[in-house]
Protein 1
Amino acid sequence: MRTPASEPREHYLNVSYGVRSWLFTTDHKRIALLYLLAITFFFFVGGAFAVLIRLELMTPAGDLVQSETYNKLFTMHGLIMVFFFLIPSIPAVLGNFLVPMMIGARDLAFPRLNLASWYIFIVGGLFTMFAVVAGGVDTGWTFYTPYSSTYSNTHVVATALGVFITGFSSILTGLNFIVTIHKMRAPGLTWFRLPLFIWAHYATSLIMVLGTPVLAITIALVAIERVLRIGIFDPALGGDPILFQHLFWFYSHPAVYIMILPAMGVMSELVACFSRKRVFGYGFIAFSSLAIAVLGFLVWGHHMFVSGQSVYAAIVFSILSFLVAIPSAVKVFNWTATLYKGSISYQTPMLYAFGFIGLFTVGGLTGLFLASLGVDVHVTDTYFVVAHFHYIMVGGVVMGYLGGIHFWWPKISGRMYPEGWGRLAALVIFIGFNLTFFPQFLLGYLGMPRRYHFYPPEFQVLNVMSSAGASILGVGYLIPMVYLIWSLRYGAVADSNPWEAKGLEWQTPSPPPTQNFEQTPVVQDEAYAYWPGEVEVD
Amino acid sequence: MSQRVLPQKTYYLVFAALLLLTLVTVEVAFFDMGILNFSIALAISTCKSLIVILYFMHLRYSSRLTWVVAGAGFFWLFILMALTMSDYLTRAWLSVPGW
Amino acid sequence: MRIGQGRSRLTEIHAVPAHQFDDLDQQREASSLGMWVFLVTEIMFFGGMFTGYTVYRHAYPEVFADASRRLSVVLGALNTSILICSSLTMALAVRSAQAGKRRALIGFLVLTMLLGSAFLGIKSVEYAHKFHEHLVPGATFTFPGPRAQHAELFFSFYFAMTGLHALHMVIGIAILGALVALSWRGRFCPEDYAAVENTGLYWHFVDIVWIFLFPLLYLISRT
Amino acid sequence: MRLDFPLFPEQASTVAGRVDALYFFLVAVSVVFSSLIFMLVGYFAVKYRRRSDAEWPRPILGDLRLELLWTIVPLGIALVMFVWGASLYFTISRPPAEALEISVVAKQWMWKFQHPGGQREINALHVPMGRPVKLTMTSEDVIHSFFVPVFRVKMDVLPGRYTSMWFEATKAGDYHSFCAEYCGTQHSGMLGRVIVLVPAQYERWLSAAAVGESPAAAGARLFQQLGCQNCHRADSGEKGPALDGLFGRPVRLQGGATVFADEAYLRESIFDPNAKIVAGYRQVMPTFRGQISEEGLFQIIAHIKSLTKEETAKAR
């Protein structure tokens, strides 16, 4: 059922106009777009800091900025990218847009709460941006005590408040998803007919709900300690700085899975659609998401192998860290197997999927180095760690995010992006990424510590390579930004299902009506019914 | 949400039990029983919160999903405490000869 | 009779689910599940502090016991009892809402608010005592003996935990006030009283936090 | 720009080779698995590329045997890595008994070292080749981390606490040491040198850098000045336990517990004397927190350790 483009059809974008109709909307699709705007802003702010960092590291001497400034740059890069881009990226934009549509619901269970989450996010962002503008913060995104609570002379409290507040946005989004997925599924949509994107978001929501409150209270305690000069984490006042690290990583390690799980969900959708195959081992991928969510909470101590933590606790955390690698490996193998005897097309989203599988594999395998106690002692707190988590977070999450944005762009905007430019950008990003971050593995094993403003000259060549890659990567990110905006006006009009994909979101027009579906859909088939005979969707 | 209206008597019984347990926990604290003091206090608190959850919060009459949610909360708290304490309780071991 | 008719008319009006729900049952289940999930986040929120408390109590057991003796067990026990009473009245308020007894509902809600305020009143008396005895962590803190620093840690946790708990009480009382206003206008009926039920869950949760705080802070050792 | 840049760090300690061996094992496993994935993805992507838009391949549900295979095989390999890494970690965490003991005090932004002969150094550390060296470390302010890449060892340095690390250098040379835990403005300026000398050169360096007073002797002087000997004497009776032969032995505490008298215990007993009371004594000792610097404390502990050595020598 196609609507000709010339005939104006009411959908969520044109149902009402004006700033108020957006700022007071409770439509999950519009809120998703509000998030898209906000996180794009934060992405480019965080990216600008990264550019300055890489420029500074072109030479061994600290000649572009002073040490104070450099320390603020990497701190704010980390803070903004982690809390204001990576964590909300896929869940708050794609998840918000798609979770209700994929399960055949009209909206999330609590639409007003959803809008409140966005406002909370913005308020948290404002506090953090205030700290940035007022002079910045230099504690590192990890806020390690007693540096953050006693010694730093920068805007720690404002930043801590920003992170504290933003945490509640994350908690409420997770809560909304959990209730929605439990209670709002369309008739016939049993758990094992859910798209794997939904399973991934369910797992991510669990982590948001169970982990984020601990970060919130920990950051609050640091702020209280700093303001009142009491010693909860400061050994000079009787406290224990290792306790801070435990509480911080209890959330912040699982937070990695908050970021990567939704990207894995996107991957399952992309790989299935562009190879026209049912996802291989659906149940294993679904349960591996839950396994990652649960096991992810048991491994935080691997950030602390040289921190002065007990040797015996370190050993327990090490073996648990190896265990959490297994479900990730299972996913990669299953995606690869899905390609087998498929009908594979190389459209832009699929290129991102290939990129994701490659980079995530490297990122995941190098994670094993960090779980191995003996090797971790050498590589922890070096550029090896930096390279590893950028392979997961940029190579994994950002690739998944961009792949997802391209895949669902026709649904979100009703327009097609230019395919040629899309493929070019995907290629540029892939090349730029590897050039930026692969040399950092070598730097790390050579012993270059992270967060270094200046460094011995023998590390320079690899650093220059990394900086050169970063400039390519930066261009790569600007290209989609430009052509996606361009496509809003000049792109070809998209029909309801340009990829011939399965999934309820493709059964409603693009862009969808405010209520998502003309009638509540009834589901009679599994999620990835890519097989002959039932190609047509009425 | 439970639709079932419990008899008033249930609530008063729970109330009486809670008050009684409060009295017991205060009394017990005045006897020195070493490590037992802590265990008893914790056991009584757990009992009290259990009956609050089961009857005042109607968990007993709620769906299995609600049970799972409530259980998950306490289980994750247990993870946080147990793994954190696994560090503190074993820190001194390495310096002990023979370990 | 007139009131009854009014109520049944109101029932028909607001027994319509919000647009995203198919029916009232779905809405009710969703809001209840949402509340339970929220309480789980609250467990973890307090959990961070309970963990910190556990670590330091394990590290400095004697000092924590000494510091704990400076708290008034009488006031603590009194407050525990008051909070248990308020939980009872809250449970009875929910029961009244279930049964559609509007006046009883309002009565129990008001009673719960009063008991909650009494708790906060006693708490502020305790805080004032601590202030006079220089037991508030910070520059003025004094504690006899060589291990004042570790006693200060105890009081840091005491104030952080009871303070956060009291903040939850204040929020709870504000919500109860809103509920009183809403039930005055006949907003609740046996088909739709989710707000009362959920506030009840919240109130009982706050009670449970105190059930653990009381022995951990006041009763470490009284011998 | 130096173009003769290294791609791999030198090996200059006994554990470096073992760490590298595990590292190469991990690299090998990574290369095997990632090439497997890359080749399969590439091969499938070409072989099964879409040839016509009307093409709808037959679905494949999955295969339990394959799932088990790629769950159990990685699990097995991961367990090998775990055991290997953990045994190495034990080696790195447990200093040999006869190690040369050097005390390290870190502060923003410098490293201070003191040798058993009293020689002091800042941001440079001279060590002998072929002899285990144990560093006992503490910080005066924030967390630092002592890292020597060519030795493949690293340990955080915490305020208010001792941590330790050890290495045995195998190759003479002048190497970098870094602070690896972010510690504020001049974090990257906490760059140091570790100079490994052959034993003869090391002896020469020791005598050239000699200051006359060993830490143990300085500690004995401090011990006198602070009046410690008033209570802690062999014949002091009930006032305080004698310290001769204390170090490295188990101590029975009030309440029946036993602790092992290491540096951490001595530190706690001096700064927080009532935390652990020795069985048979009362809480009378005042705290010395604030009266002794971190370096002074190292010296007092060196003095207490020397009492044990004398004891052992006498017994022989």
Protein 2
Amino acid sequence: MSAATHGSHAGHDHGAAHGHDLPFWRKYVFSVDHKVIGVQYTITALVFLLFGFSLMMIMRYQLAYPGRPLPIVGSWLGPGLVNADRSLSPDGYNVFGAMHGTIMVFLAVVPLVVGGFGNYVVPLQIGAPDMAFPRLNAASYWSYLSGGLVMFASFFMKGGAAQSGWTSYAPLAVISPGQTVWLLGMVLLITSSLLGSVNFIVTIVQLRAPGLSFFRLPFFVWAQFVTAFLLLLAFPPLEAAAILQLMDRIAGTSFFMPTGLVVSGQILPTEALPHTGGGSPLLWQHLFWFLAHPEVYVLILPAMGIVAEVVANNTRKPLWGYRSMVYAIIFLGFMSFIVWAHHMFMTGMGTKLSLFFATTTMIISIPSVVVLTALILSLWGAAMRFNSQFLFALAFLPMFAIGGLTGLPLGLPASDIHLHDTYYVIGHFHYVVAPGTIFAIFAGVYHWYPKVTGRKMSELLGRVHFWPSLICMNVIFLPMLFQGLQGLSRRTYDPLVYDAGQAVQGWHFVSSWGAWILAIAQIPFIINFFWSAVAGKKVSDNPWDATTLEWAAPSPPPHGNFLKSVSVYRDPYVYSPPGRPSDFWPQNQPPED
Amino acid sequence: MMAGGYSLWLPVDVSKHGFEIDRLIYALHILMAVLFVGWGIVFAYCLVRFRQRPGHRADAVVIKAKASKYAEIGVAVFEAVLLLAFAVPVLARVKNQFPSEAESEVVRVVAEQFAWNGHYAGADGVFGRTDPKFIAPDNLIGLDPNDPHGTDDIITVNELHVPVNKPVIVRLSSKDVIHSFAVPALRVKQDVIPGMTIPIWFEAARLGEFDIQCAQLCGNNHFKMRGRIHIDTDAAFAEWKKSKAPGEAPKVSEEDFQL
Amino acid sequence: MVNVKRVAVLCLAAVGVAVSGSDVLAGGPMGTATIKGKAMLSAAKPSMRAIDMGADKACAAMHSKPQYPQGKMVFPDGSIPYAFIYLKDGVTGKYDTPSTPVEIDQQGCMYRPHVFGMIAGQPLLIKNNDDTAHNIHALPKKNAQFNFSQPKKGLENKLEGSKTFTRPEVMVKIKCDVHPWMSAYAGVLSHPFFAVSGKGGEWEIKNVPAGKYTLAIWHEEWGTMEVPIEVADGATVEHTFTYSKAAAQRDVNVREVTVGSGPIARASNP
Amino acid sequence: MSATAEVIPHTVEPHPVTGVYNGKFGMWLFLASEIMLFGALFSSYVLLRVGSAEWPHGYSVLNVPLATVNTMVLITSSVTVVMAWYCLQLNDFGKARLYLLATIGLALVFMVIKYIEYSSKFEHHHYPRTNLFYGLYFTLTGLHGLHVLGGILVFLYFVGPGAGMWKTDPHRYTNRVECAGLYWHFVDLVWIFLFPSIYLL
């Protein structure tokens, strides 16, 4: 960039690189710069997001029109995935279902909010030149990409991709094709997450700019901090579970295989399934959900962080109850480790244990209510600026509210008897992650785009993107709640088989059309994303008149981020301070200014 | 057949305990609606009132919103009430307070990919021994032909009959993977875990024929794992049992041969 | 040279005549000898029940009379159908892989045919003639497994090349996971000298070249037996296989386990 | 002089508040996740063992004397790695290198003994699939063995291609050895839990 940057970076070694005198592939491909890695994460994850969504659109055709041959894509899919008449096969449905879940959670949303936004924004927001371990950061991305490619390649391998659901319950997963590759992919993804989380925690603790105390951290950084701890401590048990299941599959151990199984009329052990038994299918579920429940908060906490940033910036006032929000998410993080078995109420656990987990589940809902209430109260007395990112952040609030509230009937074991494993569950968590987290991701993209590119995205296209997306999200997911109340089991290839399915088949039709229109509604976003990078309106370093440190760096920030060292003098969101003419007071502006 | 249905709420309930579950679901949805509308009103008011416009500046002085604290406390109290007053008693009754076996109809259900095998004890009231080595197309649960208790046992596939107004105990087990025995109309759901026998119980209050669904992904034909449960009068139930009781071994003639 | 007579295995089966593989599958050195005989059971008949198709209305609707498990069928004179008889050892010629597929029909929720022979590499044509979903799950030991669904009537899958059974294996079990009573058995050989016993337990293997062989029989319920046999050109040799209890070796792994059962999950259980 | 150290604070010198440099902090966090990994595996072990009707005593089927020797080998290697770090602090690279080589040697001895143990199990047709006990035995000791192997590679790097850093940035080199030492102690600690729970109980 400028001479100043040049000077401050003289004498780089091979690892940390100059921004300008490196070959293309070192600068943009095998870079160790957190910003390049953040962008790599974002783009890779957006591609996987689209891919995961495409799988679902194919499944939605089968659900809307059971048994009808798939138009166009039917002829692209291999014989295992479609029937002879080119309609989606039951195996194909299960493959797509399992991979949709896996891709969306592990390859799209978490990499976007943590790998993408976390990488790009956290060092900037804390005034650091980079992550604490830049090369580890790159290793994390490449491990993620390898895991993603392994998952993707599994579609083309013998036996196909995994088809036992993203939860991979044993013994089904142990005896089903495609699972070994899935497990190998998971091990790579887990490794990536672990490397990333170590890096985030060290960065946030060690590399904060002078004056940036913990309670002056932007809420987004707090969210990433808690998230990193969840990833650090919750993923290893899944890794352990993956190792054990891998052993079950390739070494023939029986960790998750009980005694006395008769699979397809064959008494185990057989040559193909040499399991002698003695294991416990529930062990897998405990290990899996010990990760996967904190994983839910990994999906939602950074999203809350993004929304908080966008809300504070566009209401032009400080967040209401910043400290209580911070305490709430720390509490949320702790509690998320002792609620996992509420996913297992129907496994026949004793009532005492059920009640323990129901109680912790009710308790964990309180901090979520605190955060949501604080965000809504932050709107009070605001001077709202309705730009695209704020629209998405605003929409996040009621959508997340529906997602959170519908969790209550599932958290109580008695009402869960009727709703467990029905479409109600699907509606519930999709309200949290689709119009919840994914809207937050969109808000983040619109918000930080000028920082990354130096240009703004089109407001008009932003609105054309927002309104149909908001409507379609509800058209897709609200009917699922009705279907669930009727008692329709999830993962049902042909809903018409059941009475419950027939009673709510119309809603499948509605949901499916909602999904396809939602896909069309993403076209303006894709155009906006690429077109604005070259033709968007050029803007200043701080186009949103924001207070946090990332806006003190040039847009795009050079290698090393800041032109001169930054210090922090105040809380993160000093907007509209009384007695000052300007309606924002950046964190790094010295008071005597 | 009512393909294209647009049902909005719970299905018919034919069990004696189901109303308690339904009541809890009602109460929860009312709570959810109250909270959502409450938030929504504040939200909508803010959107209208606090827009950016010339001459309007955000009020950075933090409002003292006692309301939020009350709301949070209210939610916590309400959840506690739901948990203790509604959820706990239902759970205790459904899961723990089993009727005595003598007063109930006991059925074994052996799940497999992709069928529900029913097993009734027959006239002697004792279940025959089972062993995988006897599994055959006419003996899907592997009933031991040498066990005298088993000779009168009734075996069904995807078809259960139970008497109305009498407690029914279902002992669930699985041959292969995890299934989930779900009867929405009876508000019954229980995962079937291989290696375990898990009993559940219910009492039907109305006659009819309803779906048994598998609620846990169990393989490629998971969707096809549909059984029917018939709730019969005592007389009809006895009649059905009699009609299903195995009689003399059938005489096979060459007419029965088809390659 | 692939010289396949356009007589499907099924046509012969329909009239209940014993089926000789060499009659329909040629393509290698053929002889003029005939081996024929019967399959009989001298032991007590097994206990048997009619198949309960209540599971699927579409299945039950296709049958006016009860269906019996084929493996347990014994005719009044003690003869048994569905035995697979083949030349186990001694065949020296090389036989072409026919391109005509073996058809497996799912009809009335039963596999037709229930027992059949084929030459390794021969295509398999699997049809669903039922108004319900079927799942075809092959459980070979030496060949590749397959497991797929045919969720509606009229679907056909042709398995060829590496997808079909490419190695000799007696027998490969095929079953439907949706209708657990449905099963079929394929005897995969490298030559066409096999037969399946039919009415009266009769079977016949034609066009056998002169030589010494081991003749073997397989039956799903009663197990396997072998006998050395020698045939001369133009001769007809007869052999009756009789299963007594002693001869039957059931190919099952005997273990004392209750089906799908384990410790009762809860102490509060009645 | 490494530039990364210039740009990124606390790569070498400790953070004034936390009192550690980045690498050490990161290593502690990594070890926390490792504790969760082995913790989950140990929990699985306990759950499976408690749920089993019968379970062989480790001492009756496994080679306890060999494992005892291995325990001593691993503990000794923990001492040598501390000595290596100590010598680096005293600026004695030659001696430190010897201690590192000793650590590698001991780790290799550990692996060789492990190999002997495994092969005798295979000779007796005891495989992971044999029963749950052997499944856990091979999985847990195998995973631990992979950790030992990883440690060997890291130490080989320090005495081999990575040794150049001693000349350019001795402080950082010392820190690296310290971090690797922390990891090595953890690997040792896991063995100290594994040994009694699998071999002796």
